[in-house]
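ok trying again, last paste got cut off:
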Amino acid sequence: LGGMTIIGLLFTIGKQATLSELAHVLLQDYVPFVALLSSLYIVTSGFQISILIKPTPLNNTLFLALGSLLSSFIGTTGASMVLLRPFIEINQARSHKTHSILFFIFLISNIGGCLTPIGDPPLYLGYLNGVDFFWTLYNLFLPFLVTASGLLVLYYLIDSYFYRKDKGLFTEHLVARASRFSLQGKVNLLFVSLIIILVILPGFLQRLYPSLPAVVVAGYAISLTQILCTLGLFITAGCSYFLTSKKLRHHQHFSWKPVLEVGQVFAVIFITLIPLSLMLKTGDQGPLK
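nice, full thing came through this time. structure:
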């Protein structure tokens, strides 16, 4: 699909314009997108959280609610990496838990990331292209609240039904175990904080100093601040990778495959969006009139 798109662009807008559009979309949008996604994945996979609480419907619902909010601060990718295994651990004694994983995906891996540009990389692209950092919070908080609340209530009812079916199968030790929380890989708290700062910084500085220096690539000006912050995301991910013990990452089943797969898929997505972007720019004078 990516190759077909490039060939089509070569025949319609020419070689120079095609190279210019490719350079723009890859450097302006794709690289920052991959930098944020991969840095969140690498840093948050350096955490190992252990939570021991009773697997009751109320505890599970509260866990999903808090996880949904956390998604907007460390991204849906980050929150999923940090919280999925603890959630499975909490419910290990439950016989019926497929519904819990499905609602985890709905709430923490998807809906929860809509409140800030950090929550979901496509929102980060909007922020880099001039959307106010708090636009999503102001405009999506009510839809988030309605959607998340409805799903949490539905989950509580479903989980309560299965909890009553499972309760007789619990061992006394698992039901009565004391609550406990532990966190390994604390150095990554620093790296998560750095990621948040590096995400906020380009837009913040651009609004304070509109005439910041830029680098011109293939006819497009790219903010030097954005380039440095994107580089900072990669450096932060690298520091996290080398400063987190290999044993901990092995326990977290860390693998480069998800990063490579997502990088490949979104490279094609960004390339195939170029014709649509060009058609939209032509307005009433183009094929979408």
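cool. The mean pLDDT is 85. The two ends are 25 Å apart (CA to CA).
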